[in-house]
Amino acid sequence: MQESLSKSTKITLTEAYEHCINIAMSHYENFPVASRLMPREIRPSIAAVYAFARFADDIVDEGNLSSDERHRRLDAWREQLNTCTTDPRDPVFLALGDTITAYDLPLQDFHDLLDAFQQDIHKERYETFEEVLAYCERSANPVGRILLSLFRIRNSETVPPSDALCTALQLTNFWQDVSVDREKPRYYLPAEDMARFSVEIEELHRQSANTSVKNLIRFEVLRTREYFSDAESLFTHLPFRLRLEIKAVWHGGSRILDLIERQDFDILAQRPVLTKADWVSILLRSFF
Asked: Is pLDDT above 70 for 5?
């Protein structure tokens, strides 16, 4: 956790943003952190948003803290969010507060993200696909909406396909990380779908997927592709550099689904990951 600012601590806004950029550049996520494709003036704000989410994510998943302690720390992080535009007590919130003010970002987007992190602490299973989608609405969709706001293009035409893309990416990550999340334990495969394909929790803890698990993942992959398809209308509304970035993200997520399909939907034997060759192809395809 960041050290809080005190009256004796003098840190400039520039230093606060540099702190966030250092955090952003030390991690790798789908979220386009300080990408070279992004206009220089927006990169610090993107990094501030990322740093905010990064620390919240670490509270949920890092270390051996009790659930009560994780909730307490997230509550404290939320309190700082509420006062970051008037009384920032942390370098991350000094930068984030400035970004929120400069771009008139709705605080609700950030509260939604924290709600999703909070949910991860206590919720291990999801009964229905609708429950999973409701989680995506808080865990993923706010990221796209914030990015649209930073580019000042958040409107009724851009939000729906942006939500579709963010949901598609989140779902893709769930199917990609079944073998990782099961150890937490956390299961995003809906119980109703598992029942439909006669899959038990124990089967997700095997070294390789049986036919039932493969059929379940095939079903989820096909459904996820529909969200990627719904997101394609977003591209025409984006300025050139952002369009390149978002198309790369779109192709990257779609490529993960291709890899899952290529390994016969066995996400237990091997976690699908993008190679350097994949990234070269993704970047080239983003220009067309």
From this structure: no
